Amino acid sequence: MRQHPSIEAAESYFKQLFSEQSDFQSKQLLIGGNVFKLFYFETLVDSSLVQDFILQPLLLRPQDSIREVVSILDYAESESLEESVQAILYGKVVLYQSGDSKLYLLGVDLKKERSINIPTNERVLRGANEAFIENLDTNINLMRKLINSTEFVVKTYTIGRLSRTKVAVMYIKSIAQTAIIEELDRRLTSIDIDYVEAPGFIDELVLEKKFSLFPKLLITERPDRARAYLMEGKIVIGTAGSPDTIILPVTFWSFFQSPDDYQVSWLIGTFYRLLRISCLFVTIGLPAVYVAVSAFNPQLLPINFVNTLQSSLKFATFPPVLEALSMMFMLEILREATIRLASPVGQTIGVVGGIVIGTVVVQANLVSNTIVIVTALTGLASFVLPSYEMSSAVRLLSYPALLLSSMFGLFGLAFFFMMICIHLCQMTTLGLPYYTPPFSFRDTKDTLFRAPIWSLRKRPLGTVASNRIRTRNPRSWKR
Predict the structure, then answer these.
(1) Which chain regions cross the lipid bilayer (predicted)?
(2) Taken in order 308, 314, 317, 318, is the CA torsion positive or negative?
(3) What are the DSSP E strand ranges found in 232-309?
(4) Of the candidates 139, 211, 381, 421, which lies 20 to 30 Å from 363 by C-alpha distance?
(5) Beta strands in 173-307 (DSSP E)
(6) Please, which pLDDT band fits residue 97 given cuts at 50, 70 and 90?
(7) Distance from the Cα of residue 424 to its chain's centroid
């Protein structure tokens, strides 16, 4: 609704709306025969900016227009009281001059943010040491410094009836698919909720409803990693108040890639990528294989290994399946305790607790030596995965695999892996396939393997890029 308020009406409207806000300020100034009124939250504005760029210029040039006097980049004019209320809530000063039909919205908000620091959750050996912070404008600044192109597009949304959370969608116009951008825009604009807390809310509000443990979006705190996915045709979503950005649509294989893969030789990068994929099977299947060969299929193992296994189980109190379940559950407790406690205490609890519990349960003949080794290897293998979300999903999948193996042996484990493959093939993100079996060599060059950069001439089909040409003549120096 457009209004032409008087100074009395504006003051009455603001005071009625913010009557319970102790930090709301309404200041009146009489300068050069003109009455000026300032409305703002003192906890949101920078008082020095108000003094230097609003009050002093008005005192020196009271007869000039506000636009000529105030030297602030974040300047806007409005005739709507509702729009002015939103400006006040965002940390702006609303300036009113008697006899004027306009309200002047001046951006002098107080900037309180932590400095740009090194990534804490995605540490790599080589590469940039900058991480996103909670300020969305700063995060966009980091991205624009990395991508100096007019093709880099940033679109902002305001989501949440109460929180009014600012959300930024970033993509490369010449690479990203227009249909995916339009579909994401439709889903974001249709969100009707009180507040948004990213990245969890975006995952459940934007992506397809599907009961699955596998993550459908990639979360990163590294600007260089976000840039790499933008160059593959992906979309990056950042939200105010969160240092994590969301990358979508992604495939199953994206969760096994790390920035380190592209900073070392392609042979070394391929080895570590295959190691991560192997750790996926170890995390899901190792406890299940232990139970299956102990209770159902010991004939599949060499005789010396069977003798060692049987001797370790001879004095164990619990059967193999309960051994595995109890030790895996104990590992989850230790892991959660180390995360929730303060860093020095958490590290001590993790080391001491693991050693004490592992030693005591074996000496008390509650479990066998072998299951302690199996549980430790399973935990280490889960930590190799670069994505926290994928690591958590894989650890949880080991429980149903363990139960099926305890009932049907290795046939139950094989059936479980078959069901996982079927489930992955049914999943989609923004209407695109989530999992493509690695049968095509062209697409495995940057999924299962990390082929040389000069050979990656096209983006894989899973990147959903509208422009699949990545490099044209990367080694033109070679005769």
Answers:
(1) 274-296, 341-360, 366-385, 397-420
(2) positive
(3) 235-239, 245-248
(4) 381
(5) 218-220, 235-239, 245-248
(6) confident
(7) 21
- Residue 2 pLDDT > 50: no
Angle 336-392-340 from CA coordinates, rounded to 5°: 20
Token reading at 3: 């209004």
How many Å apart are CA 92 and CA 41, to the nearest integer? 8
Least confidently predicted of 60-64, 149-153, 247-251, 324-328 = 60-64
Residue range 276-298: average pLDDT? 89
**Pair 205, 237: CB distance under 8 Å:** no
Query: In degrees rounded to 5, what are phi and psi of residue 347?
Result: -65, -40
Helix (H, G, I), strand (E, B) or coil at 85: helix
Six token digits for residue 72: 């602030």
Give 172-177 contacts, CB < 8 A, sequence gap 24+: 172/147, 172/230, 172/231, 172/233, 174/466, 174/467, 175/151, 175/230, 175/231, 175/232, 175/233, 175/465, 175/466, 175/467, 176/233, 176/234, 176/235, 176/465, 176/466, 177/233, 177/464, 177/465, 177/466
- Joined together, the tokens standing for residue 345 give 């205490």
Q: Where are the domains of the chain?
A: 7-107, 136-250, 266-433
Report strand pairing: 103-107 vs 218-220.
unpaired
Please classify residue 262 by burial: count the beta carbons closer than 10 Å to its beta carbon, then call 0-12 exposed, 13-18 middle and 19+ buried.
middle
